[in-house]
Amino acid sequence: MLTAVLGLGQIGLVAAIALGWASKKFAVDVDARELAVNEVLPGVNCGACGYPGCSGYAGAVVKEAAPINLCPPGGSEVITAIARIMGLEDDVTEPQVAVVLCQGDNRKTTQKYIYTGMHDCNAANNIADGPKQCPNGCLGLGSCVTACPFDAIEITADDLAVISRERCTGCGLCVTACPRQLIRMTPATATVHVLCNSHDKGGVVRKYCEIGCIGCNICKKTAPEAFKIDQFLAQVDYAHDDDAAMAIDKCPKNCIVDFNSTYPDGSKFKPASIQPPTPACAGKDLP
Amino acid sequence: MAPQLYMSSSPHIHSGESTNAIMRSVIYALLPTCAVSVYYFGLDALLVLLLCVAGCLAAEALCCLLAQQPVSIGDGSAALTGILLALNLPASSPWWLALFGALIAVTIGKQVFGGLGHNLFNPALVARVVLLISFPVQMTSWTAPNPIGSGVDAIAAATPLGEMQTAVMLNGQLPPSAHSGFGDYFIGNMAGSLGEVSALAILLGAAYLFKKKVITWEIPVSYLGSVIAFGGIMWLIDSQLYPDPLFHLLTGGLLLGVFFMATDMVTTPITRNGMLIFGVGCGVITVLIRLFGGYPEGVSFAILLMNGATPLIDRYTRPKVFGRILHKT
Amino acid sequence: MDKKTFVGGVHPPDCKHYSAAKPIEVCPLPEQLIIPLSQHIGAPAKEIVTVGDQVFKGQTIANATAFVSVPIHAATSGRVMAIEPRPHPSGKLLPAIVIEVDGEDRWDPSLKGLDVAHWNSDELRQRIKAAGIVGMGGATFPTHVKLSPPDDKPIDTLIINGVECESYLTADHRMMLEHSEKIIDGINILRRVLGVKQAIIGIESNKPDAIACMTKAAAAHDIEVQALEVKYPQGAEKQLIDAVLKREVPSGGLPMDIGVVVQNVSTAAAVSDAIRLGHPLVERVITISGPAVVEAKNLLVRIGTPMEFLLQQCDGIKYELDKIIMGGPMMGQSQLSLAAPAIRGTSGLLLFGHQDLPHIEVGTCIRCGRCVTACPLHLLPATIASYAILGRFDEAEDYCAHDCMECGCCTFQCPANRPLVQNLRYAKAGILAKQRRT
Fold first, then answer.
1. Any idea which architecture A32-86 has in CATH?
2. Does the pLDDT at position C385 exceed 80?
3. Which range is most confident: A275-284, B169-178, B209-218, C111-120?
4. CB atoms A113 and B6 under 8 Å
């Protein structure tokens, strides 16, 4: 009994000394501020800041004086927190969310051909510019879903990508993933959008899409400040979009949508006014 | 107007081979073995077979429903797992043993990894080993073959490998059964699990698989070759203590393992050199366990151990790419 | 004769019986020709005519814009109707010169043949470039580039590709049977340009008549004919060199790095026409075949003839089409419609109905390793594909994804019908994008 206690005690002592020595000898100097910054970052390692993960960004903020507003998922709270740790001005950026500028799902648009092969928008877009007749519409094969680290994008049953405004953190990864550049970063306060990305003439758009912008100018006449028309495509001017909602009912093709009251057809996401907001990193328990 | 034409990336034609066809071929190749087992062990064997297959199909359907995935029992892999599991059980297995094995095989062996193609270990062998460790009595209660129509009640008996291990342990030398009766072993007239008794039936099935090009020569040849070589060396060293390589080949689950378990595509290397290493590894471990281990039989452990090494083997046996002198590892 | 081959590859059903016995027929002129400015690998040509211009057959209508580029010629006489984006076999709308055919088919009077003996290799090379000759096996790599090895890369062997390993296609086969003398003449000119003595014609043994015919024609010219085992993709440049000479082209390298130049039989014939007669590349033989076509044919077609017109020459289709393929079934491009024209690289036009093509559901990879055995470049397609799908391009690059030549063997063999070639293409694009960023 005594031997056992002594024996184990000796082993413990030797190990303790060795560990203590090693922790001194191989200690890595970490700036306390770096740890603190890492602590306030969201910890999802999405890479939207351009650094390898949250700890990489924390290191860059402390050592390389990287801008402190590069973390869109963290939003203004994180910027304020980093600013406090680093003793900097909190240069709060306006929070942004991504919007898919298309409502043309498979029921509302026509296809050029039947695509078979890899389930990826970029791959499909390489075959005769994608199966969709509309050269700018959503292909619905989910490259943005794969890119999104926050599970904020769904593909509806009729193959249209829809982004949840509650879950979107504004990291912008989906924007680069989309081969048709139809996902835009917009101010989170702007809820009215023209959900179309086709610059084709009205007559051409009518042929392939029930719900595409035909450049009829009615929205601009209704709310001249809020809209601009660029090559047969109406766009909301997010700098002066106060009156944008006035044009929603006027649009003959129903392509102006207020995300405060409705989401595109077939989406399981619901506007915040109907459903209580869910935290950004809620995980996969939601529909 | 709905589009008429299909477009896709090249190529536009296909060999016509499908996963279902491969699974079907393996099931056909196992039919002779199933038939022999029913002949020697009667309705007991048939019951075990049916229970295992039904259990695997049910477990697969259940897993798919739970995961809200399309039910994949149509691909034949669950049925195949069931047959392989049954062939690894003794004919006297109680019903609950078979069903529990089926549940283990499909859930722990396959579905937790993400279903067909993602499992690291051979599902049937995972189940067999779990059962062997959990229920050693039931899993080693063998009966002597009792051909249909012989009119005799089944009697308990030991497998040749079991007999050998006991004899070596007790007397320090091989029993008479390790020197003779090879003809019986070849046609399957010995005690053992359903699928390990008849070498003849397995070879028939294997020939079919080779003809259908479902399996390639690398793993069977390297596995058998290393068993013969290693077993042969031991036999030459002391033929009183270590059996003849032919005894190794014909007894136990070696042939079943070589042609149906070690050639399972999902859990074995995809490179040619990897397959050779895999086969040699299996052979050496099998003989080591049989001659020096605590269990009389080592095929399932050998294959499972090498299954675990498969990702590593694949990583280090990348073929030389055309036009490259050396590849980076 | 012993049959040589390479390691790997597959055996697709050859399906050449539809058109192998059909002699080459001259396709009549359509009402208009659509001649795209991009018909070859390299920079597109730049047009030098304007709408309304009268052009002769063989007149240069667009100039080469770089070393790796070739001029484009009017394929018949007529008037330039339009220069605008038109359907292209790639499925996109690309700039093309549309010629209204006048039916007189007058050659440009300034085109004259040469007496080869008085010209040196540089002049011959210029002439080949001016004639717009590109690899006619389908890759459409400009021929003069292949014929211009730098001084530190001596060429010792010219291999002539008469393999035609793609199923259905019989254009090269018919060329060898009907124009063997012209091909031999082209080979002699190519040998002269390159300054090499050794020339070997590789032909797969499923074309015994072509082997016999070429052997007879080559006998007096010290040209060897090598029979090859029937296997796809034997006609791929690197595999053909490996089969014939047992030399491996280094990864990322060219055949000239190991002293070899490979040219297609049809290219050799076109070289002969360009030098002896002064005729630029304005027509080629195209196999129109497939189970859905009423009468499969080998047609001598003007560049720019719309595919619809070609199909009319074959009495149309038997049943509704499911897929149109330009080129062979393993590497060809599926077509959006029949509106696109035949171009210099078009070796075949294949038509399939619903029952003629596989409709196998895509399953998960069961790691069967068939793609590994089939890959003629000894890659691990399934492994690279899984990295590609995950967007892990560093690993894909480590597994040499960029060496893939997209021959299609892996996808052809895959029992789960996974789109491996497309995955690999995706990986290659990802690797390129990554390299551009850094």
1. Orthogonal Bundle (1.10)
2. yes
3. B209-218
4. yes
Nearest to A106 by CA among A14, A209, A252, A188: A209
Number of Cβ within a 10 Å radius of residue A106 = 16
Mean pLDDT computed over every residue of chain C: 93
Is the CB of B12 less than 8 angstroms away from the CB of C10? Answer: no
pLDDT at residue B327 tops 70: no
Own/partner pairs, B231-234, CB within 8 angstroms, 24+ separation: B231/B287, B234/B287, B234/B291
Q: How far is CA C102 from CA C48, C105, C145, in A?
A: 20, 7, 34
A119 in contact with B at a CB cutoff of 8 Å? no
Predicted pLDDT of residue B153: 66
Which of A112, A116, A118 is nearest residue C426 as measured by Cβ atoms? A118
If we measure between CA atoms, which residue out of A258, A193, A252, A204 comes closest to residue A231?
Answer: A204
Q: Which residues in chain A are contacts of C90 at CB distance < 8 A?
A: 128
Q: Is C62 exposed, middle or buried (0-12, 13-18, 19+ CB in 10 A)?
A: buried
Backbone angles phi, psi at C5, to 5 degrees: -165, -175
Can you give the pLDDT at residue B152?
Answer: 65
**ipTM of the shown complex:** 0.89
In this predicted model, what pLDDT tens digit does every residue of B217-241 receive, in sequence order?
A: 999 999 999 999 999 999 999 888 8
* Residues in chain B closer than 8 A to C333 (CB atoms): 10
Rounded (5°) CA angle B48-B54-B59: 120
Q: B74 to chain C: which residues are within 8 Å by CB?
A: none
How far, in Å, CA of A162 to CA of A158, rounded? 11
Question: Does residue C429 sit at the A interface (CB-CB below 8 Å)?
Answer: yes
Residue A231's Cβ-side half-sphere holds a number of Cα atoms within 13 Å equal to 5
The reported pLDDT for the residue numbered B1 is 53
Q: So where are chain A's domains?
A: 32-86, 96-285
Strand C46-47, strand C60-63: pairing: antiparallel
Residue C354 touches partner A, C-beta closer than 8 Å: no
pLDDT reading at B104 higher than 90: yes
In chain C, what are the domains?
Answer: 113-277 (3.40.50.11540), 370-437 (no CATH)
Where is average pLDDT lowest: A50-54, A101-105, C347-351, C423-427?
Answer: A50-54
Which residues of chain A lie closer than 8 angstroms to C419, CB-CB? 116-118, 123
> How close B327 gets to chain C, by Cα (Å)?
8
Residues of chain A with pLDDT under 50: 280-287
Question: Mean pLDDT lowest for which of B104-118, B189-203, C152-166, C265-279?
Answer: B189-203
State the burial class of residue C269 (Cβ atoms within 10 Å of its Cβ: 0-12, 13-18, 19+).
Answer: buried
Alpha-carbon distance of B98 to B260, in angstroms, equals 19
User: Quick one: angle between helices B19-66 and B199-211, nearest 10?
Assistant: 100
Angstroms from A118 CA to nearest CA on chain C: 6
* pLDDT tens digits along A183-197: 999 998 899 999 999
Report the chain C residue with the minimal C-alpha distance to residue A113: C336
Count of residues for chain B? 329
pLDDT classification of B135: cutoffs 50, 70, 90? very high
For A121, the closest chain C residue by CA position comes to C426
C42-67, pLDDT tens digit by residue? 889 999 999 999 999 999 999 999 98
Give, in degrees to the nearest 5, the angle at Cα C141 between C136 and C143: 80
Interchain contact, C334 vs B271, CB within 8 Å: no
Beta bridge partners of C62: C47, C72
Interface test with B, best of A114, A118, A120, A134 (most B CBs within 10 A): A114
**For residue B329, pLDDT beyond 50:** no
Per CATH, the number for A96-285 is 3.30.70.20
Query: Angle, nearest 10°, between helix axes C121-130 and C180-194?
Result: 130
